[in-house]
Amino acid sequence: xxxxxxxxxxxxxxxxxxxxxxxxxxxxxxxxxxxxxxxxxxxxxxxxxxxxxxxxxxxxxxxxxxxxxxxxxxxxxxxxxxxxxxxxxxxxxxxxxxxxxxxxxxxxxxxxxxxxxxxxxxxxxxxxxxxxxxxxxxxxxx
Length: 142
Hints:
By secondary structure, this protein is α/β, with parallel strands linked by helices. The protein has helices spanning 48-55, 67-80, 97-112, 120-126, and strands spanning 6-7, 10-11, 59-65, 84-93, 116-118. It is globular, with a radius of gyration of 15 Å.
């Protein structure tokens, strides 16, 4: 299927269609930043860089789909801007298992050339947050 084709949740990747929106269970809380990105990466033609700088943020937790396209592009853009990135492998996805494996391997190659890869369970444990209380993590969608 291609962008604009009818899908089960409206036209694919078309603003205003239900399938383009944030998953209901992950809806942002009032005041949370939502970045509506027009390209593959979260930095292209958005105000994300300015928001991160203003907030003093230097490390990103990256999730989303697809791993080999939008997630990869965002991590590379972030790395070029000096951000440290952790990609949660169980919070990203691809249509193709081999692309998923390769994309994650590329991110963490050479000791983390673009970033690091871990699991949400390990991340939450390191932060002393139980999954039941981690209702909203910063996410990067398609």
